[in-house]
Amino acid sequence: MRIQVINPNTSAAMTRAIADAAGAAASADTTVTATQPEAGPPSVEGHYDEAMAVPGVLARVREGEEAGVDGHVVACFGDPGLLAARELACGPVVGIAEAAMHMASLIASRFAVVTTLARTRGMAARLVDEYGMTRRCCAIRATDIPVLELEEPGAEAHRGIAAECRRALADDGAQAIVLGCAGMADLPSRLSRELGVPVIDGVSAAVKLVESLVSLGLATGKTGELAYPVAKTYSGAMHKHSP
Amino acid sequence: MRIQVINPNTSAAMTRAIADAAGAAASADTTVTATQPEAGPPSVEGHYDEAMAVPGVLARVREGEEAGVDGHVVACFGDPGLLAARELACGPVVGIAEAAMHMASLIASRFAVVTTLARTRGMAARLVDEYGMTRRCCAIRATDIPVLELEEPGAEAHRGIAAECRRALADDGAQAIVLGCAGMADLPSRLSRELGVPVIDGVSAAVKLVESLVSLGLATGKTGELAYPVAKTYSGAMHKHSP
Amino acid sequence: MRIQVINPNTSAAMTRAIADAAGAAASADTTVTATQPEAGPPSVEGHYDEAMAVPGVLARVREGEEAGVDGHVVACFGDPGLLAARELACGPVVGIAEAAMHMASLIASRFAVVTTLARTRGMAARLVDEYGMTRRCCAIRATDIPVLELEEPGAEAHRGIAAECRRALADDGAQAIVLGCAGMADLPSRLSRELGVPVIDGVSAAVKLVESLVSLGLATGKTGELAYPVAKTYSGAMHKHSP
Amino acid sequence: MRIQVINPNTSAAMTRAIADAAGAAASADTTVTATQPEAGPPSVEGHYDEAMAVPGVLARVREGEEAGVDGHVVACFGDPGLLAARELACGPVVGIAEAAMHMASLIASRFAVVTTLARTRGMAARLVDEYGMTRRCCAIRATDIPVLELEEPGAEAHRGIAAECRRALADDGAQAIVLGCAGMADLPSRLSRELGVPVIDGVSAAVKLVESLVSLGLATGKTGELAYPVAKTYSGAMHKHSP
Amino acid sequence: MRIQVINPNTSAAMTRAIADAAGAAASADTTVTATQPEAGPPSVEGHYDEAMAVPGVLARVREGEEAGVDGHVVACFGDPGLLAARELACGPVVGIAEAAMHMASLIASRFAVVTTLARTRGMAARLVDEYGMTRRCCAIRATDIPVLELEEPGAEAHRGIAAECRRALADDGAQAIVLGCAGMADLPSRLSRELGVPVIDGVSAAVKLVESLVSLGLATGKTGELAYPVAKTYSGAMHKHSP
Amino acid sequence: MRIQVINPNTSAAMTRAIADAAGAAASADTTVTATQPEAGPPSVEGHYDEAMAVPGVLARVREGEEAGVDGHVVACFGDPGLLAARELACGPVVGIAEAAMHMASLIASRFAVVTTLARTRGMAARLVDEYGMTRRCCAIRATDIPVLELEEPGAEAHRGIAAECRRALADDGAQAIVLGCAGMADLPSRLSRELGVPVIDGVSAAVKLVESLVSLGLATGKTGELAYPVAKTYSGAMHKHSP
User: Is ipTM > 0.85 here?
Assistant: First the structure.
């Protein structure tokens, strides 16, 4: 099985870290390809960044489809372009935020999301609601560490994240932690040991969910909202993106 | 006051129709400029179309800001790029779906949305939820008329829309109709006469709301989720969009 | 256009303050008339006060209708009698709580209401829910300043309100403030400057919404819940209120 | 124990019917007094009627308090003035809509409300939501029988109500019926036999709930939203209602 | 009337305390029988305990039915086996959590649940949601007193509970307290005097609700989800429980 | 990896069918053991059946734990005993209803559940709500085929299920089908071909989710609601179940 993991930002270091996490999670007979948009924001830290990252993500989805991959992971905690990607792809597409939250809901009554910049808490809150996790997600906590500092997180970033997790356990009643950034994909096992609770990284969770769907023969239903895009010709510089 | 109304698709005929509706709604001392993306989908009929329309919408928002407009209307019923546009703009930005629904909630306990293609019903349902209108919106009905047939709606399109509205009144208990496409902006007064209930077009509603906000000195709060985008350099072909 | 703004309490000083705020918000070609019930509570600080204020409000709505006004504003943050007034009136009727909240939702992801007595917080919470603002309203904070002390707010009242607003920004993540009392109608611009976030007064917001609805030719739908009252004769002292 | 049952409309025939239902439900050692406002609407069929009935209801509550009754029932399915009555009274106050719905939720997973005029369905829907019954109430059906025709319901009214109940059982999956009008208080036992499901009348349900609360020593909490009204002097014709 | 009150745990001391509370609440012409499972957990402090207590509870329901009781109370705050008991019984079955919450909602806008072990807070939260009390229940607070220490609560347990109640009043805005354990059935009157707010014990509340339902001739609707169990033969050691 | 799949009823034929579906879904290096309670109901068709099936399910969970299995699947669409099993087990426990719904939400905006007896629709509705799937699940349809007729479904049962699925697609807007009974585990591929939409069986979905969780090193968080049961001695015949 071939799964394409798309890092929506253009940081090659983060793509490598995501590739590592995805590869470690994948089954022996799964080939994971990690990629990133040709052009776009170096990090996604708001709605504008996200909107500008999406066309590059969708171009990668299309290329993956043409290359015959079996499924896709969108590896940014805002799940940017997820529904558009589902329209475009034949196989399943899973976002890391939804993957992490669904997995968390199977092992905890209440979980907390620990994310990067405070301004992205609102974005996470919208996803919690969209995915039906309102009663499960007891807190969305921000560390105010910029995304790209996670490329090579030093002791301080790790300490900041762990401290915020501890607050979620003590003050919010969280029984599990969802890491709210693809850049944290290398942290769960160490954090889990330190904290004594499950810590969930969306990249590896999404890889397992795509593998599961593919092996069950399941893919996006194509009869309604998520049908293939209506064929039409886009104008100007967007012509190449015409569905 | 200067308001920029952005048609997210590239149909010049629809931009003209939107300009007419916006101009008719605007106060005497408001200058309305209608515009459309330089490149992109000729119509927005799904999540993929929407994602590919958004960069062009945001580019127009930025140009409008540089030209000193006081506020913006995003004139497609999916409100594409709305939150990103709010980050980018100094003044208020209002989408036509939210405008129509908020207005409808002031004059009816229950309203129905009557839209174009059946596949866009899911998109409308997400907005109904996002805007807190779940208890107010009693139905989302589709006419299955493609968006661009509304450019010059003949008698048949009109009849189809009116028939769906009548079903919403009789079967769903709607007390008002929200038209679910910017391309229907010329229909409300005639439909309202025929149906005997208020019929709300989002383009004119949004123009009035932007005028209202600007005249009250109100604009997007810039202290949290909707703060200006974090300054950074986008790579490659997206460089020009760097915030 | 003629708009009647009804202060549900019998404080003439507050009616004057409301008239000032409404007049300042109104367009040049709008005539605002501010009025108050002939008899009733001097301030509305609970459900009983509200119930006893409503007949006087509705009498003013009827008189306004007979005098040919185009729309009405109910200028008390509990929106007392709003649905009954919508039944009675031909044109639109807007309450200041709904006006402020709808406007706030257009410029902020999360807003806080800052109100007067703690006991009225429950009333505000019901409206937040009724208007679909549960996910948007992050806090309802009380200053415990009695309504009528706002007639001539001294430095202390202002400081108390500002302090509560600051807590809403720092502790609750509010990005905008909704002032929860018509008696605060003169505060928004000064508070907004001090706090650095949008501050919304319902009186001016409601005036703009009524103006918008009237200019769009929109009024309460009369086919269902909000149809004109069923004609009947009320008995005894209520005879004069017969619909 | 003394319980006052207040019919919010001024129909003496309906007050007698309510008195009969209340008396039949009351325990041997409970004295039920049925009353109606001195002045007001002969029937409550909309928000305006309701608003104008409330002052008369509250006057009766006050008189009952002065006469030393132990609790009150508000006997109109809109529960008019309920929260204001709770502020005013020392003992418990229960509305017939809330009583019927709470009781229904103890004996059925899903119940339907069968009411009178179609326009009052919206009022019932607001109460369903207010009382947390959204998942329990599967339908609100109207018979379009005016309230006062229920004073002396002939075979036709009975047949109309029974037919609507049958639709609720067959089409909506209702397992119990809540009768949505105090004027239907004499119907439950006969209807229940005909339909083979529990049929709940709010008047008798509310009497039992007030008896239960009083005998448990429970009454409205007076520390927050429902504290006694703030002492103040109402002006003009409302002076007599001053709290 | 005969009501059977079932203590789901096997503590005879707690059954006696429950019998006392139930007897004190019952009307003169009601006979209350308190019972407990023949075998099972000595206390219910989690989902596993609850699951293992339920067969014993249901056996008692069946025995009560055979003995001709008119209704049942399930006297553990998790309402274990409630829906299964409703299927089995001819008359009404009421749980103490639902009883306490419904009663609380009639006398307070916001109530808090004060319970025993912290781990049972999640169980209470599920019931709050199930019973439609999300907007009414402002807090679920745990004292971390094990259930069986309540058999003979000393001054310390009482102080711990009272302290948690005070926090609910001061910090959460509770206007009434719901006691979250059948073992607290002797506390409400003393606590209510100390705290100055209504304090509700579910055992006595449930007794009154069963009495009310029985006297109104109401029992579980048997046409859908809660119909009598489908007749079938259970295998092995469960044979005796065959419906 | 070793996964135990527990059929909560005592039908050996159904256990075999479940074993087949589970085995077909499992990865090459996963050993699936299918089991059923020693004693209990031959089918689960209501709350009473479910309550009586749970102790046998939990006994199997304990035996599996002692035998060192890595995770468990509860293979009945009501997910009976799920939370108790999570308390008891060291590794993850997944129910087939939650598994199917979470998977469905990844590939469809709206799905329908097609189940057996009409009376179990209420049970499914509770799970839809519990799992946050209210906006995703557009219908719960019953075929009124008894569970055990699915042991060897003939052409008629298949036709009945397919017909109900078609109604869900045409009338409810479903984009995918969730099969609401473990006894339907052999149907998805054939049905999916016939219907042209994804059809999801919970048994295979749950096996993949347990595999995924185990391979990610994730298991139930043990710090709160789902901690191991409190050690205590159960009395009488339940002694053997003491935690």
Answer: yes
Is residue F135 less than 8 Å (CB to CB) from chain B? yes
D6, D19, D1: which is closest to D214 by C-alpha?
D1
Whether residues B110 and D121 touch (CB distance < 8 A) is answered with: no
Mean pLDDT of F124-151: 89
Asked if pLDDT for residue A152 goes beyond 70, the answer is no
Does B241 contact chain A (CB < 8 Å)? yes
C179 and C128 together in one domain: yes
On whether both E90 and E9 belong to a single domain, the answer is yes
- Cβ neighbours around B137 below 10 Å, total: 24
* Mean pLDDT confidence for E162-186: 92
Could you tell me which of F230, F239, F169 has the C-alpha nearest to residue F198? F169
Verify that B186 and B218 share a domain, yes or no: no
Nearest CA in chain C to D89: C48
pTM (2 d.p.): 0.96
Same domain, B186 and B116: yes
DSSP chain B: -EEEEE-SS--HHHHHHHHHHHHHHS-TT-EEEEE--SSB-SS--SHHHHHHHHHHHHHHHHHHHHTT-SEEEE-STT-TTHHHHHHH-SS-EEEHHHHHHHHHHHH-SSEEEEESSGGGHHHHHHHHHHTT-TTTEEEEEE----GGGGSS--HHHHHHHHHHHHHHHHHH--SEEEE--GGGTT-HHHHHHHHSS-EEEHHHHHHHHHHHHHHTT-----SSTTSPPPP-PPBGGGGGG--
Quote the minimal CA–CA distance from F212 to chain A in Å: 6
Contact C122 E135 (CB under 8 A): no
Lowest mean pLDDT among A64-73, A211-220, B149-158, E219-228: B149-158
For chain C, how many structural domains are there in total?
2
Q: Which residue of D has its CA nearest to E197?
A: D221
Question: D122–B110: do the CB atoms touch at under 8 Å?
Answer: yes
Residue F181 has pLDDT above 90, yes or no: no
For D108, E85, E221, the CA distances from E74, given in Å and listed in that order, are: 17, 9, 18
pLDDT tens-digit readout, D43-76? 999 999 999 999 999 999 999 999 999 999 999 9
Q: What per-residue confidence (pLDDT) applies to F184?
A: 81
Considering the domain architecture, whether residues E53 and E111 belong to the same structural domain is answered as no
Q: Tell me: do C108 and C153 sit in the same domain.
A: yes
| Nearest beta carbon to residue D54 from set C38, C51, C233 | C51
Interchain CB contact of D135 with F (< 8 Å) = yes
User: Quick one: DSSP state of residue C53?
Assistant: H
Q: Is the pLDDT of residue E16 over 80?
A: yes
**C105 and C195 co-located in one domain:** yes
A46 touches chain B (CB under 8 A): yes
Collect all residues with Cβ–Cβ distance below 8 Å to C182 and sequence separation of at least 6: C7, C14, C17, C18, C75, C76, C77, C96, C202, C203
Residue of C nearest to E138 (CA): C122
Model pLDDT, residue D153:
59
Claim to verify: residue F25 and residue F68 sit in the same structural domain: yes
**Maximum Cα–Cα distance for chain D, whole Å?**
55
The answer, for E110 touching chain C at a CB cutoff of 8 Å, is yes
Confidence grade of residue A156 (pLDDT, cut at 50, 70, 90)? confident
Beta bridge partners of A235: B40
Distance from the Cα of C122 to chain E's closest Cα (Å) equals: 8
Tokens of F235: 């009395």
Query: Would you state the pLDDT for residue B182?
Result: 79
Low-confidence ranges of chain C (pLDDT < 50): none
CATH code where residue A126 lies: 3.40.50.12500
- Residue C113's domain comprises 97-202
Average of per-residue pLDDT values in chain F: 94
For chain A, what is the mean pLDDT?
A: 94
CB–CB contact C173 A121 (8 Å): yes
